[in-house]
What we know:
The protein has one helix spanning 124-131, and strands spanning 6-9, 12-13, 20-21, 34-39, 47-52, 57-63, 66-71, 76-81, 86-90, 95-99, 106-111, 120-121. It is mainly beta. The relative contact order is 0.30. This is Sugar 3,4-ketoisomerase QdtA cupin domain-containing protein.
Amino acid sequence: xxxxxxxxxxxxxxxxxxxxxxxxxxxxxFEIKRLYWIYDVPGGQKRGGHxxxxxxxxxxxxxxxxxxxxHDGVDKHRYHLNRSYRALHVPNLLWRHMENFSTxxxxxxxxxxxxxxxxxxxxxxxxxxIAQ
Length: 132
């Protein structure tokens, strides 16, 4: 796989009053263009189920936990996110979905592009032909 997902450790400032983690442009492998978050996911539901031609993402479990399943067209890998200082970088041209959301889970997605519906690859068979 040429585009390999990577777990990132974000800065963590520990304090007896509570910990603090932050993200700045220099912490990520791309410039931040957009943020969005996913929450109130009903039990058993999946989010995602697509790939991007250009967009790269960093996904963080701000609260609770969930799995990110990434497919390169041949192999599938699962990443369990459950710490707000641990992020998953998902490069472009990888199929992804999120599942197994815990109660009150919040997923923060940091994107390298502004929203563009034309950047989505929503059909898995089409994705496989592009990825190979």
